[in-house]
Amino acid sequence: MLGAHPLLQGPGAFGENLYTRGLTEADVCLGDRWRVGDALLEVSQARQPCWKLNERFARADMARQVQTSRRTGWYYRVLQEGDVWAGAPMALQERPFPQWTVARLLDALYAPELDLERLRQWLALPLPPSWQRLAQRRIDSGVVEDMAPRLDGPQAA
């Protein structure tokens, strides 16, 4: 997809502040609680690429490529503060929503057609308020919003 882009030579190319090897969106679930070093983290949502990636990588289609790949990453919330260091051990502590992988969340988020049942299931998940509002807006309007402004930048609006 990207080839040998110089930004990809090390961690942090996409703005991540915690980098792991071996975990993918298919392996990680919403609500997963991970002990990382002395800290306890919880997966709170998938990342959504935006037009700023286009600028960072000097590629007009970068955000769209990342979204299409479904390799967007995810966010953690800190449940228990503690020291985290390079090479810190990482262990899954709890998985309350094993059926809701980050990959499944992304498939629901980026589906071009509405899946009202899946959106109603979203409303019962511990997703951030912005994701709850998005699901409710789609249910109420019957429309999947235009993603071009997020992916292509302010000029697309």
At a glance:
With 157 residues, this protein is of the alpha+beta class.
Over the alpha carbons, how many angstroms does the gyration radius reach? 17 Å
Calculate the terminal CA-CA distance, rounded to whole Å: 27 Å
Query: Going across the major beta sheet, what is the strand order?
Result: 3-2-1-4
| Total DSSP helices | 6
Query: How many strands?
Result: 4
**Any idea what the CATH architecture is?**
Beta Barrel
Tell me, what is the CATH class? Mainly Beta
Largest sheet: 4 strands, antiparallel
Write the H/E string, N to C: EEHHEEHHHH
User: Which structural class do the helices and strands define?
Assistant: alpha+beta
Structural domain count? 1
| Integer average pLDDT | 89
- Under CATH, the homologous superfamily reads PK beta-barrel domain-like
What global shape is seen?
flat
Strand content: 15-25%
Low-confidence stretches: none
- Percent helix, as a range, is 25-40%
The CATH topology label is M1 Pyruvate Kinase, Domain 3
Description:
The chain is of the alpha+beta class. It has one domain (6-148): PK beta-barrel domain-like (M1 Pyruvate Kinase, Domain 3, Beta Barrel), CATH 2.40.33.20. Helix content is 31%, strand content 15%. It has 6 helices and 4 strands. The chain has helices spanning 52-57, 62-69, 102-110, 116-123, 129-141, 148-152; strands at 33-36, 39-46, 74-80, 90-94. Strands 3-2-1-4 form a 4-stranded antiparallel β-sheet. Helix 4 (116-123) packs antiparallel against helix 5. The two termini are 27 Å apart. The mean pLDDT is 89.
